[in-house]
Input
Amino acid sequence: MNTELFVAKRLFSDKENRNQLSRRIIKVALAGIALGLTVMLIAVSIVTGFKKEIRDKVVGFGSHIQIINYDSNFSYETAPISSRQSFLPKLREVENVRTVNAFATKPGIIKTDEYIQGIVLKGVDSTFEWSFFNKHLVDGTLPDFGSSDRSTQVLISANLCKLLRLNVGDPIYMYFINQEEQIPRVRQFKIVGIYNTHLQEFDDLFVICDIRQIRHINDWQTDQVSGFEINVSDFDKIDHTEQLIREQIVQYGVEKGTTLRSITITRKYPQIFDWLSILDMNVWVILILMLLVAGFNMISALLVLILERSAMIGVLKSLGSRNRSLRNIFLYLSAFLVSRGMLWGNLLGLLLMLAQKQFNLITLDPSSYYMEVVPINFSVVNILLLNAGTLLITLAMLILPAMFISRIAPDKSMRFD
Output
């Protein structure tokens, strides 16, 4: 039988002496722990939710990994490659690869009677995964590229429509310039859908169309594309997956006169992902401050508990209990008290997170934060890690104050009982 744990349980469940000073101080300490854990849960869920939301929007426009012609560099005016690559069947079998789709891009200009705007026309085929744009569709419908003829349907952003005074159903004229051609090529398209991701850098740039239109504009062959977009299941394994894909390209990519390369979305837009990684520093500052507050609150509560139980400590010492055993009693008692505070902190934090998730109580300015509401990311792993870390770090901070027990002399503490 664990004697220290038994004594700590009796002290924790003691219903007497409710008017003791320690009761009030403990309540203050537990309130500090509960509020601290609530703040930590909300801070982590908001920051991880914000990062995930921005990351998903960037990935929605460019996928996780792209395979392109080495000569394309970072330009949207790409050198074509064949869509009949020998490595494609093996590529779809690579671990963590979810989808593989061909794409093509072409820089151009939208011109109306009053306005002009530079854009990038992105071509996709009938196998394209529309879940991202369907989520952010605000008007009209998604384009349908399943017919045998080239489709003139396009999907355009709400911001471009506002700038150019366009609506669903309106025709738009785009101008494209090819190398060694002095006269631009003109194509007419029809707006069938409007999307809005609030990521203005991309909303003002991309117009989605049928990939066959770009082939026709560039005079490409029917099997030529700008490259392949690959979506993965686990973003954290994106670098390892890209390495496996690169091995497949080197082993099976034998198209003459063409050198292929792969690039991850994090390398294509390093400024965005570097900015997102900086947000982690804000979370660590909040976590450290909240843990320090919770720890110092419990230190004060523990010292008061020790002083009020000095007579009991003296009796146990006179009966042969060692200082280490007595320290364990109060550490067990502290663990019970911290757990009670964490319970209320979890309930309050999860309740607030659920309310924001369901009812969008707190809104944001999309022009500044790239989204309309405060995002919440429910992660069981993060919640468990925060609880475990709070408990362990708080108890670790109490080890040194618990050594105060060794300075209590039995004769002096029992004399004033």
